[in-house]
Specification:
It comes from Sporolactobacillus shoreae. This is BtpA/SgcQ family protein. Pfam families: BtpA. The structure is a single chain. This protein is of the alpha/beta class and 269 residues long. It has one domain: Alpha-Beta Barrel (TIM Barrel). Helices cover 38% and strands 16% of the residues. The strands form 2 sheets. An 8-stranded parallel β-barrel has the order 1-2-3-4-7-9-10-11, surrounded by 4 helices. The chain has a 3-stranded antiparallel beta sheet with strand order 6-5-8, with no helix packed on it. Helix 2 crosses helix 3. The two termini are 20 Å apart.
Length: 269
């Protein structure tokens, strides 16, 4: 069922760490004085700390591009491509990208920087903090083929942060129809916001609902709950727990990464 995970990450139940890029040109919080050099240095420091701490993969995202767009501007994709291009020589593990919240832009970026996966809101329609949030999974699937990115794995987030499915549907029903209609490479289950713990029971419901799709815990994993989450999930995507003092806005803390990954490796053994 999850053979592609072992092929990509060289382990079962991988931990994918987020590399949160500082605000980029065009973003409200962009530091024009520090410029792109500041963004690159910050990202490089985080990548080194994450890799030395032992994570299995990295995902670059424009996490500080708040408030997010559902159709990302060209300048954002260009800026992310520059950062990743300058850091590629430092990245020794599998990596993916996430242009919040635009799956087409994410695929375009993945194709440009040879990323192996994306994570996005690819299906469904939502009432969200960012307005009415619609998707077009058929267009996204065809776009992946059209740009030669058929080998880029697509992680479908079916519980988007700061949003709710517009129709009143049970999460198990959403998981089943997402798998049947879209054939996702993986399904992500999240908490309410970045850093919010994902309900293990919801993970279990989704895991039981699908037949062959890997399930990833998408938010809120920490050293105290990761064994419980991985007892259900096929992997996890982590960010806030790796930051200094566990605070979202802070840089990555190597010691926190190492402590977390030591627990994960012991669990996997």
């Amino acid at each position: 069922m999850v053979s592609w995970i072992k092929e990509v990450f060289d382990t079962e139940k991988p931990i994918i760490a987020m590399c949160h890029l500082q605000a980029l040109p065009g973003d409200p919080d962009y530091d024009a004085t520090g410029g792109m050099d500041k963004v690159i240095v910050s990202a490089k420091n985080d990548v080194i700390a994450l890799q030395e701490g032992g994570v299995d993969g990295i995902m670059f995202s424009n996490e500080y591009s708040l408030p997010y767009l559902t159709k990302v501007e060209t300048v954002t994709v260009a800026a992310m491509a520059r950062v990743i291009g300058e850091l590629r020589s430092f990245v020794k593990i599998p990596y993916g990208v996430n242009c919040l919240w635009d799956p087409i832009a994410s695929l375009d970026l993945a194709a440009a920087v040879d990323a192996q996966f994306i994570r996005e809101i690819i299906s469904g329609v939502y009432a969200s903090d960012f307005g009415l949030w619609n998707t077009d999974p058929g267009k996204t699937a065809r776009h992946r083929l059209r740009i030669g990115a058929k080998n880029v794995k697509m992680f479908y987030n079916i519980v988007p942060e700061a949003a709710k499915y517009l129709a009143d549907r049970d999460i198990s029903e959403i998981a089943k129809t997402t798998e049947f209609n879209n054939k996702p490479d993986a399904i992500c289950v999240s908490g309410l916001t970045a850093g919010s713990e994902t309900d293990t029971q919801v993970l279990k419901v989704v895991k039981d609902a699908v037949r062959k799709t890997p399930i990833f815990c998408n938010t809120g994993c920490n050293k105290d709950n990761i064994e419980r989450q991985l007892s259900v999930a096929d992997g996890a995507i982590c960010a806030t727990t790796f930051k200094v003092d566990g605070i979202f806005e802070n840089p990555v803390d190597y010691k926190r990464v190492k402590e977390f990954m030591d627990i994960v490796k012991e669990f996997r053994n």
